[in-house]
Each structure stands twice: as structure tokens, then as C-alpha cells.
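Give me C-alpha cells for this 134-residue protein.
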Amino acid sequence: MIRGRNALAAVAVVLLCGCQTMGDAYDRVFGSSKPKIPELAPIKPTAAARILWQANVGAAEKSVFFPAVANGVVYAAGRAGQIAGFDAATGNSVSRFEAGTRIAIDVLNALREVYRAERDYARARYTYVINTLR
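Here you go.
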């Protein structure tokens, strides 16, 4: 009885190992059962990208600044403290300010990194306690 079970198990293993091979042979004889994906039509551009206007507020140096848009005005800043507003449609200067000091984006980035480090430390302590209790 045990010998018959071992033989049956061996046959099952051999058959299961050959599933992919048998599937490939079946596909060669009877054709693939996989759905055929149609060719994609070429994409025809409906509009050309072009620059409508551009302006310079000052260098960002190593910082990264993103413009903000409010009420049809695009606001941009430079690292040395320049802040300017431009009409979104025409690019004409609407306002320009001097902050009088460098923009402290680095302070905000450092504060974000402190919060991230505190969060990671709390997670590590929690994981340590849970793993110790197991």
C-alpha cells in the first residue's frame, strides 16, 4: 500500500513538473490559446507643445522651487529672496518683491527630515518591542 502511494506521488510530481512543457507542446500542435493582442495604432499629435512665455526670478542654487498659481497669477521665487508674480496668460510681470534675505527653504527641509527621523525611530522601537514579545 505504501509502495503504491509512493509511486502515485512520484507520477504526480513528474506530471506537475511537466505542465509548462506539455502546455508548450499543446500550443505547437493545436495553436496558442493565448489571446492575440492587436497592434496599436500610431499616435498622431493633436497639438504641438510650445513655450508661451518664460521669465527669470533668480537662481535656485541647490534648492528646488515650484511655482504657485492663484487667480491667474504665477508666483515664483529665487533663492536670494526674489519673489515675482507673472500674468499666467501673457507672462507680463505683475508684481516683484525682495524678501531682503535668502529664502529659508533649507530650514523647512531640515525640519521635515527631523520629523521623518523621529517617525522612523518610533517605528523601529515598536518593531523591536513586538519582536521581543514574540
